[in-house]
Amino acid sequence: MTVTTAGPLPEGEYDVTVVGAGVVGSAIARELARLPLRTALVEAADDVGEGTSKANTAILHTGFDAVPGSLEARLVREGQRMLAAYAADSGIPVEPLGALLVAWDQEQLAALPGLARKAVSNGYDAARILDAGEVRAREPGLGPGALGALHVPGESIICPWTTTLAYATQAVCGGVDLHLNCRVNTVTSGEPYTLGTSRGVLRTRHLVNAAGLYADELDRLLGHTDFTVTPRRGQLIVFDKFARPLVRHILLPVPGALGKGVLVSPTVYGNVMLGPTAEDLDDKTATGSTAEGLAQLREKGRRILPALLAEEVTAVYAGLRAATEHDDYRIVARPERRCVTVGGIRSTGLTASMAIAAHVVELLGEGGLPLGGARELAPVRMPNLGEAFPRPYRSAEMIAADPDYGRIVCHCERVTRGEIRDALAGAIPPGSLDGLRRRTRARGGRCQGFFCGPAVRALFEQAGAGR
Amino acid sequence: MNRTVDALVVGAGPAGLAVAARLAALGAGRVEVLEREPEAGGVPRHCHHGGFGGRLQGPVYARGLTEAAVWCGAVVRTGVSAIGWAGPLTVEVTGPGGLERITARAVVLATGARERPRSARLVPGSRPAGVLTTGELQQAVHLYGQPVGRRAVVVGAEPVAYHAVRTLRRAGARVVALVTEQPRGAWAGTAGRAGGGVLAAPPPVLTGTAVTELLGRGRLSGVRIRHADGRTGVVGCDTVVFTGDWIPDHELARYGGLALDPGTRGPAVDASFRTSEPGVFAVGNVLRGVERAAVAAAEGAAAADQVLAHLSGAPWPVLGPPLVVRAPLVWVSPNRVTGAGAGRMLLRSGAPLVNPVVTVDQDGARLHRARVLGPVSPWRSMRLPLRWTARVGLDGGPVVIGVA
After folding, report:
1. Stretch B275-288: mean pLDDT, rounded?
2. What integer pLDDT is reported at residue A186 of this predicted model?
3. φ, ψ dihedrals at A238, nearest 5°
């Protein structure tokens, strides 16, 4: 089990290297871990899932609204089934709440039958149109003026943090070397490739570009100019847990001529999320929120679920989708050059991740990567971060076996000393307090550290984490 | 494990400890206090400045209150958390000893208040390290000896802002600006005097100024500010402390379905600290954010007599008409009338006033009119005597409090 965060990289040559440990790169590494190969997963940040994968809408999509016949439609459909099963086996919280695409005007109402037909062409036939009365009965908190909705019962919410961490943990336990704080600066093509990284040289025969927002730049280092990533910022507001009873479904906007609206969705942590904005930017690091963005979201949220706005805001964040000039995913294999680029994976990447991984490994095979000798990976069981599932502070058995599961450190999120200790001793320990939050929820609640901040920091520093 | 006690107090801050001490001293039976932190005492534990209970330092005051409660016979349990309700007067508790359900004849909520963090204030920008509240700052410096930054901006105009300045300085940071949207701070006219102490060298104060964006990746690099006249700028800093802007930490009250007051955002109570739920009392800063520790402790002591009366079988009234405040007033506490009350109400204005005349009306009839002498600031409550409550019609409309 190898996770490195500093110092020179190991000598020798990797059979295959995945650049980018987001949800997609980690899923690919996990798939590769099944093969008797020497595999590396390299990541510029100090943690897995530290880019777009940590800051999205956290929805496990059915793919009902994908472009029929596209690669994205197929991979989302397959990936949804794969991830739903994997989540159940691995302890990743998923809540199958179903979605309502609520129509607020005649144009949106008129669009619903088309969306229902599109769902059928995407192989999803459980979507139904509800009239205004049925919508109101399902969501009594909706603002006035909801004319109808498309009900998509298969849409779910999921924990994006645990998903990426589960993939990466399984990959590492399966023998993949994870190198963090390792930015790829140069690529010298040849047999093998020579990557110049912020931590020295890495040699690899096969290469997977899963660099997300930076996939176009890595591609240019490889000599390809297929696409340009235009970061599309999505700001999101997370409301207090007191808002959770206000909404039962994922409330999705009906796509229309006036652009995409915003969604209101419960999170698996028991909050309610409002967003995202959609702003095309040039800066791939512009993950800040803006006064205009927040005002716009609150305005739209007020119409959808008026009572939501009366609750406190627990967190605000912004993620950047790796949008390109192409409508579909850009998964391009160059077998003769032994490389695969996984580009343009936007909002649906979390859902499709396992199917993308299987697809990419197949493409690597076409480039000569030996795919024989696959084995089953040892299953992974992740600590539960979901409100809908048992948590240690409520478990008499866990507390009896280890009293630290009864010592709540983060009171708002009810995270115990035992859970923090476990995360700090995990296969992939957090590199920062934010990383610890994504593993435990500690400091993620309404007080944002007023009560627990220094106590959590002390545990983090005692463990020697983040060094 | 299921247990029964006579009075269960949730929260061992000044209010909770005071109510427990007096209840135990009055012979209320088994009086148990639940504290989720490893030590009792509440917020004063990490307030290393004087002015508590006269001239005491916060931690000394906290220890004194704890010792008094224990000496009087209350059981003060630390490191255990009240996590919800299993019945109207049954609280679910978790701790290293396992799960419990504690049923009480009276439950007293004394869960305190917290400062609203940056996110709740909707301050845009990046999410770097170095963004704190005073509570986090004081704990980091005074309880954990953790380093904070070197250049700090403090946001807020309440007395707590000055305490943040002192804590930052003690930790070796330079406070480059004190920023507030208010036209003046709590310290104005008192030569930097705050909470019984004097700041020899006050930091530069920017009044009428808002923090509009946080800058920096990884670590805070500065804050963007905007003055009321439209000027903008960036103040370089690696730490920003958002102070004041208190809000009740009222999770149990909400999960218990208690009626809340829209002004205070805490549980609605009458002058006897009775909530809408029979047998459930609320005292201290969970009622509103925020009063000084001595005020919270005095409320606790006063509430003990009311709890004892309940334990002796006094009937539980239905909460009467709500007290509603008109701007610039922001809240009143207590905020329900159930009959003739003793003592006083606390009335908070959102803007500075001078010699205001307070009026109380119900259904068009004037119940009370009185001038409050002197200046009134947004961080100090006016005290309103309760003599007029006997004239409130309990079946009437809302009682409206305003200033002229």
Report:
1. 97
2. 97
3. -105, 120
Judge whether B342 is closer than 8 Å to chain A, CB to CB. no
Does the pLDDT value for residue B341 go beyond 90?
no
Identify whether residues B172 and B252 lie together within a single domain. no
User: Is B234 within 8 Å of chain A by CB?
Assistant: no
Residue B179 near residue B154 (C-beta atoms within 8 A) = yes
Cα nearest neighbour of A409 on chain B: B37
Is B249 close to A406, i.e. CB distance below 8 A? no
Secondary structure (3-state) at B252: helix
Q: What is the DSSP letter of B4?
A: E
**B residues 168-207 lying closer than 8 A (beta carbon) to A:** none
- When pLDDT is cut at 50, 70 and 90, the band that residue B300 belongs to is very high
Q: CA A248: distance to chain centroid?
A: 22
Q: Do B262 and B340 fall within a single domain? A: no
Q: Looking at domain A99-153+230-323, which of 3.30.9.10, 3.30.70.100, 3.40.50.620, 3.20.20.450 is its CATH number?
A: 3.30.9.10
The residue of chain A with its CA nearest to that of B78 is A407
In whole angstroms, what is the distance from residue B75 CA to residue B24 CA? 9
Res. B194: pLDDT tops 50: no
Nearest CB to A314: which of B119, B126, B254?
B119
Judge: B36–A293 Cβ closer than 8 Å, yes or no.
no
Q: Does A99-153+230-323 match A2-54+160-227+326-366 at the fold level?
A: no
Instruction: List chain A domain ranges.
Output: 2-54+160-227+326-366, 99-153+230-323, 392-462
- Most distant CA pair in chain A: distance in Å? 66
ipTM: 0.95
Q: Which residue of B has its CA nearest to A311?
A: B120
Tell me which chain A residues have a C-beta less than 8 angstroms from the C-beta of B217: 285
Cβ B285 vs Cβ B113: under 8 Å: yes
CATH topology for the A2-54+160-227+326-366 domain = FAD/NAD(P)-binding domain (3.50.50)
Residues B207 and B263 in one domain: no
Closest approach of B63 to chain A, Cα-based (Å): 19
Determine contact: A401 vs chain B, CB below 8 A: no
Query: Number of structural domains, chain B?
Result: 3
What residues make up the domain containing B185?
117-244
In this structure, the number of other CB atoms found within 10 A of the CB of residue A129 comes to: 17
Whether the predicted pLDDT of B196 surpasses 50: no
* Best mutation target, A283, A294, A417, A450, to test chain B (most B CBs within 10 A): A450
Contact B119 A399 (CB under 8 A): no
Q: Do B124 and A288 touch (CB under 8 A)?
A: yes
B260–chain A Cβ distance below 8 A for any pair:
no
Assign residue A438 a region: left if phi > 0, alpha if psi is -120 to 50, beta otherwise?
A: alpha
pLDDT for B192 equals 42
What would the pLDDT profile of B42-63 be if each residue is shown by its tens digit? 999 999 988 898 889 999 999 9
State residue B187's pLDDT score.
64
Is residue A61 among the annotated active site residues? yes
Alpha helices, H only, A267-334? 291-304
For β-strands B280-282 and B98-109, DSSP reports them as parallel
Mean pLDDT by 10 residues, chain A (467 residues): 95 97 98 98 97 93 95 97 98 98 96 97 96 98 97 98 98 98 97 97 98 97 94 96 98 79 96 95 94 96 97 96 92 97 93 98 97 96 97 98 98 98 97 97 97 98 77
- Taking the CA atoms of A108, A113, A117 and A122 in sequence, report the sign of the dihedral they define: positive
Identify the bridge partners of residue B235 per DSSP, sorted by sequence position. Answer: B223
Domain boundary among B244, B271, B301: B244
Position B183 confidence tier, pLDDT thresholds 50, 70, 90? confident
- CATH number, position B204: 3.50.50.60
What confidence tier does B342 reach under pLDDT thresholds 50, 70, 90?
Answer: confident
Measured between CA atoms, how close is A316 to chain B, in angstroms?
6
Taking a C-beta distance cutoff of 8 angstroms, is the pair B41, B62 a contact?
Answer: yes
Contact B117 A293 (CB under 8 A): no
